[in-house]
Design brief:
This protein is α/β, with parallel strands linked by helices. Helices cover about 45% and strands about 20% of the residues. The strands form 4 sheets. The chain has a 6-stranded mixed sheet with strand order 8-12-13-14-11-15. Strands 1-5-6-7-4 form a 5-stranded mixed sheet, covered by helices on one side. The chain has a two-stranded antiparallel ribbon with strand order 2-3.
């Protein structure tokens, strides 16, 4: 058996239902992870320890092939540095796999005890990126304040409550609802990447929330997610990768509904008859804030873009260092041992087929 090429990943192909998202991010709060939210309730979890990306892609590719052949659902989790796959979940088997790289600390990892200059180089670049993102967040907060001071939040809250009641009030399930937390995008080496189109592709009703910073989009999404959980639904809650305390997308898949912040850097527009725009700025802005504060807003936008650009460069450098480190690991892999390991992984992930 030969090892996979370092650039061999071709994707999972067309599956009956295939979701793509991130569980980790580098943002204004540093490194943030929803690993536990996605893997904590699974019956079978396999943690790969510091596998080079080509090997992870080979394993996930084999999982995808098997799932595709037999019509199983699959969820592919992407790496927030380079967007390559780093994990997979099989909902029907309640099983999943995730690669834990050396530069990520999920607790008391042994890698924290190693003095590896290459791994430290990755971490140093990410720390610098976190600092730039934190500065960008301060600028973004000042940008938000301009709009916050000119919004009619009483009108906005009333509209939000009426909308949530209209869409969710008559829908309940006789069970305890749950919320699962993720990211639909990330700030990668190539800039912002998102999977909104994939995550909303099979939804009958998509609600495009328009507005400006500080105009209540995330607050509305939090209230909507809370109500859907109270009503007994399993709710997918996608956080902002830049500011994980803010929400960008809420999906109630059982109702075929998705609500997302459709503004830059993930701006989309309706393309179906069932798509709906919810424009919070037009609804509740007391004045023409864009025109009145045009110069100040342009200044803040430029400052924000500068800090985000510096962060992107550090992420690019971190990924470059990661590739160098993983290349050395890859060259030491024994192909026969890897083949045996892949077979064991497949048996564990699809364990219920043997029951």
């Amino acid at each position: 058996m030969r090892l996979p090429r370092k650039d061999a990943w071709k994707g999972c192909g067309i599956l009956r239902e295939e979701l793509h998202y991130f569980v980790n991010t580098n943002g204004s709060q540093g490194f943030s992870s929803f690993f536990k939210s996605n893997f904590g309730a699974l019956r079978q979890v396999i943690r790969l320890e510091d596998y080079p990306a080509p090997l992870v892609e080979e394993v996930i590719g084999r999982v995808c092939e098997t799932a595709n052949e037999k019509g199983y659902q699959i969820e592919v989790i992407h790496n927030c540095l380079d967007n390559r796959p780093e994990g997979v979940i099989l909902p029907q088997f309640q099983s999943g796999l995730m690669n834990i790289p050396a530069y990520v600390d999920y607790g008391y990892s042994v890698y924290r005890l190693f003095d590896n200059p290459q791994v430290q180089d990755i971490r140093d670049h990410l720390l610098k990126a976190h600092g730039y993102f934190a500065q960008a967040k301060k600028i973004h907060d000042a940008w938000e304040e301009i709009y916050i001071s000119h919004m009619n939040f009483s009108r906005l809250n009333q509209f939000g409550s009426e909308t949530i009641l209209e869409l969710l009030g008559g829908h309940t399930r006789n069970r305890k609802g749950t919320g699962i937390h993720r990211f639909f995008g990330a700030a990668t080496k190539d800039g912002p990447v998102d999977y909104i189109e994939n995550l909303t592709e099979n939804l009958e009703h998509r609600y495009f929330i328009k507005g400006r910073p500080g105009t209540g989009k995330s607050t509305f999404l939090k209230k909507l997610a809370e109500r859907a959980i109270q009503n007994g639904f399993r709710v997918e809650i996608y956080h902002c990768s830049f500011d994980p305390g803010s929400l960008d997308l809420v999906v109630v898949r059982e109702l075929g509904m998705g609500f997302f912040d459709s503004t830059a850097p993930h701006e989309y527009f309706p393309s179906r008859d069932t798509d709906t725009i919810l424009d919070f700025y037009s609804l509740a802005a007391a004045d023409d804030v864009d025109a009145e504060y045009a110069d100040k807003i342009a200044q803040l936008q430029a400052q924000y873009a500068e800090q985000v650009g510096l962060a992107k460069e550090e992420i690019r450098q971190a990924n470059y260092a990661k590739n160098g480190y993983e290349s050395q690991l890859f060259d030491q892999i024994n192909p026969k041992k890897f083949k045996t390991t892949v077979q064991k992984i497949l048996k564990k992930l699809f364990y219920r087929e043997r029951a």
